[in-house]
Amino acid sequence: MMKLVILLYSLGAGGAERITSLLLENLTKEYAITLVLLEDIQHYPLAQNVEKIILGQNHATESGIKKLLKLPLLAFKYRQIIQNCEISLSLMTRPNYINILAGMLCKLSGKSPKILICERSHPSKQYSYSNLASTINRKLIALLYNQADKISANAPQNLADLVENFGIPQDKITLLLNFFDLAKISTQSREDSTLKNQILASKARGRFAFISIGRLDSGKNHRLLIDCMQDFKNKADLFILGEGEKRGELETQISELQLESCVHLLGRTPNPYAPLSVADCFVFASNHEGFPNVLVESLALGIPLLTTNCAPKEILEPLGEFIDSQRHCEICKGGILIPLNDKEAFSEAMRFIYAQPHFFSSKNLQSQARKFAIESQLPRYKQWIFE
């Protein structure tokens, strides 16, 4: 049986982790799989017969310098795990570095597995900041990624970024869109939960329910959504699911704008689909993304999207029609596309969907999500990994 090793940070609540969980669930019957994590966090269930290894003591809160200095040691440890396997697959930037370096070490002994890496972000935007961490990451991507045997990108803009800004040959990169277990999303959405009941109680009072899901960090730009709620505090609620370093700042912003009655930071939940399923509209103000899974998950539940122009066009499919005379807010099959960090345009889109809550049919939204069903996308992943 072919041996596959998969490396990533953890099985936390992120998109790469969800993809990995689905891969493990669907590949374990055909292949001998070892899952290697940098941190022992497990939000998703681990498929049977998968061996799990924790690669040393690592924490996401470690300083960038410490993470950099640990790369050679982690690569050496990982080399010992992969030297007798056929394929080593990694997801996300730091695991990709470790995977590539370990593969280079394996070659010194004359035997190396195929080294496959998955880029799940838009690197030149993710590392666009004028700090040391961004500079180092840009240099490491340019230096190391070419050493991988295969690279996949989960969005066209991520693929183009690697080619245009990091010198990766286009024929080395394959576009693999994210995939979803739509049946499981539907099943979990029907579960009862405290957060679902909180949103239902708000709607029972005649209020419109906006919802957003994502880490509370600067990139997700929740500040813009909270600013927009100044126009809706008497008629709508904004529910934000997620946790992160910006919680304190966002709480201060909510207090200063006197929006405590209509903006609710709900924290993390193991089942976001239950509250998401009863919302009226999903709002997403992110500044940069690779492939935001939550957009497809919202579509799968028939929830229309208002999102900044941060996601692959394949998700929303713009129609070339606009809700405003300035042509800022574009109508799509999946919702409305809005320029990055444009409060006035985002507020206009929110007013539009509030006034016309049934503008997008649930049936059409769900049809848009089916393009990303696991049944259609998994064969392409298997071909890329094993052929």
In brief, what are we looking at here?
With 387 residues, this protein is of the alpha/beta class. It has helices at residues 15-27, 64-82, 93-108, 123-126, 132-144, 156-166, 182-189, 194-204, 222-228, 247-256, 273-276, 293-300, 313-316, 343-355, 362-369, 374-386; strands at residues 3-8, 32-37, 51-54, 87-91, 114-119, 150-153, 173-175, 208-213, 236-241, 263-267, 281-284, 305-308, 318-322, 330-332, 335-338.
Helix content: 40-55%
Rg value:
21 Å
* Quaternary class: single chain
Q: Strands of the biggest beta sheet: in what spatial order?
A: 10-9-8-11-12-15-14-13
The largest sheet, given as strand count, sense and whether it forms a barrel, is:
8 strands, mixed
Written description of the protein model:
The structure is a single chain. By secondary structure, this protein is α/β, with parallel strands linked by helices. The chain is built from 16 helices and 15 strands. It has an eight-stranded mixed β-sheet with strand order 10-9-8-11-12-15-14-13, with helices on both faces. The protein has a seven-stranded parallel β-sheet with strand order 3-2-1-4-5-6-7, with helices on both faces. Strand 11, helix 12 and strand 12 form a beta-alpha-beta unit.
List the helices and strands and how they pair.
Elements: E1 3-8, H1 15-27, E2 32-37, E3 51-54, H2 64-82, E4 87-91, H3 93-108, E5 114-119, H4 123-126, H5 132-144, E6 150-153, H6 156-166, E7 173-175, H7 182-189, H8 194-204, E8 208-213, H9 222-228, E9 236-241, H10 247-256, E10 263-267, H11 273-276, E11 281-284, H12 293-300, E12 305-308, H13 313-316, E13 318-322, E14 330-332, E15 335-338, H14 343-355, H15 362-369, H16 374-386
Parallel strand pairs: 1-2, 1-4, 2-3, 4-5, 5-6, 6-7, 8-9, 8-11, 9-10, 11-12, 12-15
Antiparallel strand pairs: 13-14, 14-15
Helix pairs in contact: 2-3, 3-5, 9-14, 12-15
